[in-house]
Structures are given as structure tokens and as C-alpha cells.
Amino acid sequence: MRKFLFPLVVLVGGCASPPALDTSPSHISRPTQAAQPAQPLQPEQSGFDRWLVAFRQDAAAQGISAATLDAALSGVEPDARVIELDRRQPEFLQTFADYLGRRVTAEQVARGQAQLAEHAALFDAVEQKYGIPRAVLVAFWGLETRYGAVKGSLNVPASLATLAWDGRRSAFFRSQLLDALRIIDAGHVSAIDMIGSWAGAMGHMQFMPSTFRAYAVDGDGDGRIDVWKSLPDAMYSAANYLQRAGWRANEPVAIEVRLPEGFDWRQARISHRVPVAEWAALGVRAADAPALPAVAGRAAIVLPQGWQGPAFMVFDNFDVVMKWNRSVNYALAVAQMAQQLAGGGGLTAPVGEAGALSVAQMIRLQQALNELGFDAGTADGLPGPRTQTAIRLYQAAHQLPVDGYPSPSVLAHVEQTHAAAAAAGTLTLAPAPTFAAPPGQP
Fold first, then answer.
1. 153 — phi, psi (to 5°)?
2. What CATH number does the domain located at 359-424 have?
3. Is the pLDDT of residue 367 over 80?
4. Which residues, including other chains, have CB under 8 Å from residue 311's CB and lie 6 or more apart?
5. Which of 149, 264, 390, 413 has the most CB atoms around it within 10 Å of its CB?
6. According to DSSP H, which parts of 325-432 are helical?
């Protein structure tokens, strides 16, 4: 995952959502691929062969059996497609409305409800043991693999060996490869049957090997853990992860809310947490319920598509979902999918300003903000928290709604200001001032 924590848009164009529960430092894509033979990088084969010999020696020294090493790594070649997918650059930014509309559809909700009915006894047992609502588990399942229909088609050891050798994130993928070999060594799956995404995410819920080893459980009691073919294993494992990540029973992930007239948009940020009663006192109301939920923890307001779009109140369980996949849009999609699977309705508010910035436009926005004295950090096209803070500072300075959202209208305003400053010779690279929260607020 990329190390910006709270993106308001998702990078797409050759990229989808990241593998569940992955703790890698940066990856935002898990494209669906048809089963194809690996495409070796022939000119680099000798370098890979030398790397593989050294890796096998290290793995054997760590206790992995020769049989497993032979089964998983004999004849393995680096796969050019895996490296291409790892390095693929996104083309544009996807709005929350687009992200949600492509994932939480009437068809997907209907399929999920059919799964809930078909496997009711399983979800009863899982919910009783772990306290995770069945609709939440099925929401994850639908978002990750379309209820098991798209689990990936690449051999995981081969993909991880390619990425471990390639060097861009070799330490992370080397550790994942070692864990994958330990899973095979433990007898949970054969090397040939360990199939997943190009980045090594596996099974119904797309566990990375390290996550499998830390949280996967034998749900059907057959003595092995098969997250590919055993739905009980997959669901018990996912519920175990969520429980151990801090899931709070009987509390929501996020709910849509209505904000009062004159709401201070600076308060709508994920780091600003206050008791629900304080939000209620400010006039925040549930969009489709008589009252805000009574929860013990603090809540934040997020605006995934800016001040003109829907507003959500997020709770402690939102943070749990973010541990699974550190994307605001993903966490809100889980909440929306679960709500609709349980019989609730969809969004009530307008979707917000239409259109998404391309990566090139985001880079232009960041460069212009920097030159106007609002520190957006490196102009890399990624709308991270530093860029969001720069946008908020710019909006406050120009009496715009301070939502931090990189909308097309914000880009147009910034570029107009930048052009005027360039003509006047007043562009600067001075650091931006500290963002000022509302009086009395952290």
C-alpha cells in the first residue's frame, strides 16, 4: 500500500484495489488476469538463476524442506507480466462515486444476499464465534473476489520469486515468498495449487502469505487451511483477522449523514475525532435513521468527494477496515455493501462534483500549489495527506469551502491563480503555513 493513509480518490487505469490485508509499502493494484504461461525475461535469466540458488540456500537454512523448494521453485522463471503489473503507472484518478458505482451494484448486492441465504448456517457459526456481522464478511468477500469468482490465476511462488528478485520491493516480497513456502511445507496447499494475484494475494478473501500465517484458521476442522476451496476456512480466517484487529461488536463502520447549514468544512477530516454527541450538538444528523448511533468511541466526518458530495460519519470499525485495505473509498464501500446486503438503502445525497483529475493533472496541481507557497510535497500525482493539507490551506486563503478535495474546479482555480502570480512575478517555493483547525478543535 502506498504510504498516504487517507486518499480521497483511488488511482485507476491498469490498477484496481490492493490485495486484502497486505502490509506491503506500496501497491494499489490487483488486475484480473486470464491464466497464461509466464513470460520469462530471457536476458536476465542468468541473474535470476544466481539469485534463486542463493534464495534456496537461505530458505533451506530457515527450515523449509527440499521437497517444498523443489515443488515450488524448480523451473521457475521471472515473469515479465508480473513486473509490468507491479510497475504499471495509473492513468487517472477515480472519484468515490465511480469507485462505489463499479463495485456496489444491484447485481452484486443480490448475489451477496443469495450467498447469505445459501450459507446461513456457516455465517451463524462464524458470527457467534467472532462477533463479525455476516453482512460485513460477505461485503469483503464480494469486493475482494466477487464471491470467489475472481481469485487470481497466477502461481503465487513464481510471482513472489519474480518480485523478490526484481528489486523494487524485494525485501517485502522475499518475506512473502518465504511465508508462502512455509504454508506449502505445512501441508495446507500444494505448490501447484497455490494460485492468486500477481502480487501474491490468495483465496476467497485475498490473504497475503504473511496474513495467512498470522490469522488463517481451520474452519471446517479437516486439519488443513484451504482459503481457496473451503469457504469455512476463508470466512473463519477473515473473521479471526477482523476480531484481532479490534472489531467492536454492535457498532457500525460508517453511516451517511446530513451536515447542518454553515458546517465548518475544516472539521471534516479523518483525524478530527469527537464523541458522537458533539456532532449531534452541531446539528449533524443520520441520513436515513431517526438518530445517530450510540457508540462508545469517537467519530469523524469524511467527505470522499468533497463538500458537494455525500458525507459520512466513521467509527472505530472504520479503522479496522482500513487495516485490511488502507483506502477510504474501500472502507466506505465495505460499509455501503454491508448496509445494502442487510436490507438497507443506498446513498441519499448527490454524488458531488463530476469528473476526476488525471494523474498528469494532479501533478500540475501539486506543482502549482508548491510554486504558490502551499507545500504539496513531491509532485507525484498521488493525492496524499500533504497534498490535501496544501489544498485546504489554498482553499482557506481564497475563501473556498475547505474540504481538501482535488476536484476539477479546484485545479482550475489554482491554475488561474498560478497564471496571475506568474505574470506578476510573485511565484514562490516558500513553505506553506500550518493548517489552522477551528477554534477549540485539535
1. -135, 15
2. 1.10.101
3. yes
4. 256, 257, 258, 259, 268, 301, 302, 303, 349
5. 390
6. 328-341, 359-371, 385-397, 408-424
- Strand, coil or helix: what is 390? helix
Cβ contact 277:257 at 8 Å:
no
Q: Which of 174, 177, 163, 199 is nearest to 68 (CA)?
A: 177
Banded pLDDT at 375 (limits 50, 70, 90): very high
Q: Does residue 400 sit in helix, strand or coil?
A: coil
Least confident of 4-18, 50-64, 248-262, 412-426: 4-18
CA 238/CA 347 separation, integer angstroms: 27
Greatest pairwise CA separation for the chain in angstroms: 74
Give residue-wise pLDDT tens across range 77-119: 999 999 999 988 777 788 999 999 999 999 999 999 999 999 9
Single-letter amino acid code for the residue at 316 = D
All three cell numbers of 104, joined, read 456496489
Q: Which residue has the cell 470499525?
A: 317
Distances from the Cα of 389 to the Cα of 223, 271, 288, 437, angstroms: 51, 12, 31, 11
Pairwise CA distance, residues 162 & 124, whole Å: 41
DSSP code per residue over 44-82: GHHHHHHHHHHHHHHHHHTT--HHHHHHHHTT---BHHH
Measured CA to CA, the distance from residue 210 to residue 55 in angstroms comes to 18
Task: Give the Cα separation of 340 and 377 in Å (integer).
Answer: 39
Q: Which helix (H) or strand (E) holds 173?
A: helix 170-185
User: Per residue in 337-346, pLDDT tens?
Assistant: 999 999 999 9
Kindly tell me the burial class for residue 249, based on how many C-beta atoms sit within 10 Å of its own C-beta (0-12, 13-18, 19 or more).
exposed
Instruction: Specify whether the CB–CB gap between 300 and 270 falls below 8 A.
Output: yes
Q: Which residues contact 431 (CB under 8 A, 6 or more apart)?
A: 373, 375
Query: Quick one: CA dihedral 51, 57, 63, 67, positive or negative?
Result: positive
Residue spans per domain, the chain? 10-98+145-244, 359-424
Q: Are 299 and 313 in contact, with CB atoms under 8 Å apart?
A: yes
Cross-strand bridge partners of residue 71: none
Fold adopted by 10-98+145-244: Helicase, Ruva Protein; domain 3 (1.10.8)
Average pLDDT over residues 360-380: 96
Say which residue the cell 516558500 belongs to.
430
Domains 10-98+145-244 and 359-424 equal at CATH topology level: no
| 426, amino acid identity | T
Q: What is the pTM of this model?
A: 0.87
For residues 174 and 162, give the distance between their C-alpha atoms in angstroms, rounded to a whole number: 9
